[in-house]
Each structure stands twice: as C-alpha cells, then as structure tokens.
Design brief:
Elements lengths: L2 E7 L14 E2 L2 E2 H11 L4 E6 L1 H4 L9 E4 L7 H11 L4 E6 L7 H13 L4 E6 L2 E2 L3 E4 L3 H5 L8 H6 L4 E5 L12 H11 L2
Parallel strand pairs: 1-4, 1-6, 4-5, 7-10
Antiparallel strand pairs: 2-3, 6-9, 7-8
Length: 193
C-alpha cells in the first residue's frame, strides 16, 4: 500500500526507570520486536526513528530506513517530524515501539479501512479509548509538522473529529503499550493467559 510506516523508537522511557525498549519479552527486546513488526507491514516505506544509543542494539533489515533522533528530549513531536521528513507516501502510519504484542494480523482491519477511506485518520480503540497506531492521510502533513513538545498527533485528531474513523480492537491485549513497571507486569501476566 502507498503508506509510509513510521516506527517511533526514540522515547526517553521516563516512567519505566530504565530503557524499556531493551527489555525482553518472549525472547526478544521490545525494540527488535517492533522492528520485525515494521518490516512485516505491507507498506511502501518503512522508517525507523531511533536514538543513536539504541541503534547499536537494533537488528535492522535493509528494507527499513533508519532516521536518527539526536534530541529525544524535544518530545514525541521531534520523532514524528523526523519520520515525516523521510516519508514520501500518500499516508503515514505512526507506530510506537512499546506495543510488543502488536502484529500485522492485529492491524489488518486498519489496512482494510485505509483502502476504503483514504482521506480519513484511522486508529484503533480499546473499550472506546484511542490507542496506537494511527494512520494520517498526507493532507495532514503540514499540521503534523507543526506539532511541538510531547503531543504527537493527538491534537490533530482532536481538531478534526469528523475526519476520524475508529475501530474497536478485536484483541485488546495486542494493543497494550508498556510505559511503567506495572504495564510490564500486566504484559507478562497476559503472556501466560
């Protein structure tokens, strides 16, 4: 599909107290699980935005373009902009590297909706609450590039509710994101269910 998939892997892991993307889940780091997911997606471009410090721990296939974020303290908007500047497709799928159970299978509905609704902002919800990843059509590029701080694309979703198309996740556990030790405990507990 004519989509630039942009994996954001440059966050500071403030709430975790350690680099969460280097934590292992089911034998692989969250970082390398995210890169494998990125590489598996049926997108024209696959872009990984990552800090130089993490890059040495990453197994990056040739099909993935690496963009280094040397100032992650500037917030998520910095990574978003770096990814967008490397992107050339008709829409942009922003993924976060801290959703270790996310798979291409989990995202098939999103890709199906994208084919039928190319002008819409599309994202999943869990119990009605928005979660990642989020697909933005190219018409929102300038608004995305204008974001600052740690807001990402939330402000754009809020400013354009009529342009948003959501779907309830069939497997909510696939969309768990890891931000704190409690989230990690929940994730490990879910792996035994």
């Amino acid at each position: 599909m004519n989509i630039s998939a942009i994996m954001l892997a440059a966050g500071l892991s403030r709430r975790m107290g350690e680099d969460k993307l280097l934590i292992e889940f089911e034998g692989k780091t969250l970082l390398n699980r995210a890169i494998e997911l990125l590489d598996s997606l049926p997108c024209r471009e696959k872009i990984l935005v990552i800090t130089p410090a993490r890059l040495c721990f990453a197994i990056v296939p040739e099909t993935v373009t690496v963009v280094q974020n040397t100032s992650p303290e500037d917030g998520q908007s910095k990574s978003l902009k770096l990814g967008l500047q490397a992107a050339t497709a008709d829409s942009y799928l922003f993924l976060t590297a801290d959703q270790p159970r996310l798979t291409f299978e989990s995202l098939k509905r999103l890709f199906g909706l994208a084919k039928e609704n190319p002008a819409q902002i599309i994202y999943p919800t869990v119990l009605g609450k928005p979660c990642s990843p989020v697909l933005f059509p190219a018409r929102f590029r300038q608004e995305l590039l204008a974001q600052t701080g740690d807001t990402g694309g939330r402000a754009i979703r809020a400013a354009h509710p009529d342009s948003c198309l959501t779907f309830e996740a069939e497997s909510p556990l696939d969309f768990i994101d890891i931000d704190s030790p409690e989230d990690l405990f929940r994730l490990n507990r879910s792996a035994t269910i």
